[in-house]
Amino acid sequence: MRARPVQSSPRFLPLLAALGGALWLAACSKPEPAPEPLRAVRTMVVGRDAAAGEALYAAEVRARTESRLGFRVAGKLTSRPVELGQAVRKGQLLAELDVADLGLGAEAAQAALRAAQVNAEQAASDFKRFEDLHAQGFISAADLERRQNAQRAAQATLEQARAQASVQGNQARYSKLLADVSGVVTAVEAEPGAVLGAGTPVVRVAQDGPRDIVFQVPEDQVGGLRSLLGKASALRVTLWGAQGQPLAATLREVAAAADPVGRTFLVKASLGLDAGEVRLGQTATVSLARPVRQDVRRLPLSAVAESGGRSVVWVLDAAAMSVQPVPVVTGAPDGNQVVVTEGLQPGQEIVTAGLHVLTPGQKVVRYVDPKRPGAPTAGGVMPVSQASSAAR
């Protein structure tokens, strides 16, 4: 018996077409994006604070005068009997050059001086004889004048040779580098065997005498310091490792230009102490009293971020549980905290940890310590999985 082909009923065709279209749309459509997880952040409420009334700077002790000493003439360095850190006295030998060439130059100058002296004496004798001949009428006045000019030229040559001999004698003496004043060698800049040009530094000597406290200040504090120049006891200095009360210092110098690397200004203050009372390079802390600023905000350093070249703080909207960045104006850091002078109001809730993963308008939850459910903490950021569980 032969089988008959199965024919589809016309009423099923629309149903099949709809089913095929649904399958095709399902295959072509993109999957739904996963919802962004809630971020857990640590927060704090902003209050009213006062800025510190004292500025502290790291400083060191330096000599009031420190000289880089070198030879006045060029030559080969043959010896340097002083070493780094050695105390030297005025007139003590610091270094010496090879004197062979300088000695030959001095001898040549002396020989030229003797020759000029002989020529000057001969010219003077000739002029006297011609003067007698002119008196007797044997030569004219013009001849006598020529002899007189020759005698004057010989005398000038003698004076020139004498000066040159003095210069060459000085050059020979300049082969020895002597200490101008008593002090301490703080740097050695040339070793024996080196060929040096005139003026090349060989050693650096810190002179005995008054000592200064040297430190750096930021640009925004230079103006206030300049007003204290010359005022006694403007600063208080505490020497590291020293026992006793802080020392009073007088502000002596403020640099006119900023350091090209650190963009800070060099400041020097006089301690009024000599070399025997403090050590070169000794560290110190300089304190400067400043007016107390009221109605500022003290925040942890972790609460302030940078965006677009400006300092921002993330503020939490408790009603919507979302965050927004707010530009602020900051002052000088105070320990582990930063002082905010503009941009925040008391009572605002800000994010202090977890702000590196935030975006404007993002939904967040407050971090809750797992060991103390329901109690906000001041440390750490809850992982995203825990934050989502806390939100549910």
TrEMBL record:
PROSITE patterns named in the record: PROKAR_LIPOPROTEIN
InterPro entries according to UniProt: MdtA-like_BSH (IPR058625), MdtA-like_C (IPR058627), RND_pump_MFP (IPR006143)
Location of this chain's protein in the cell: Cell envelope
Keywords: Coiled coil, Signal, Transport
Major location category of this protein: other
Region listing for Disordered, in residue ranges: 371-392
Segments forming a coiled coil: 106-164
Domain Multidrug resistance protein MdtA-like C-terminal permuted SH3: 300-355
Keyword Coiled coil listed: yes
Signal sequence bounds: 1-26
Ranges for domain Multidrug resistance protein MdtA-like barrel-sandwich hybrid: 70-201
NCBIfam families assigned to the protein according to its UniProt record, in alphabetical order: RND_mfp
Family to which this protein belongs: Belongs to the membrane fusion protein (MFP) (TC 8.A.1) family.
Protein name per UniProt: Efflux RND transporter periplasmic adaptor subunit
Organism: Leptothrix discophora
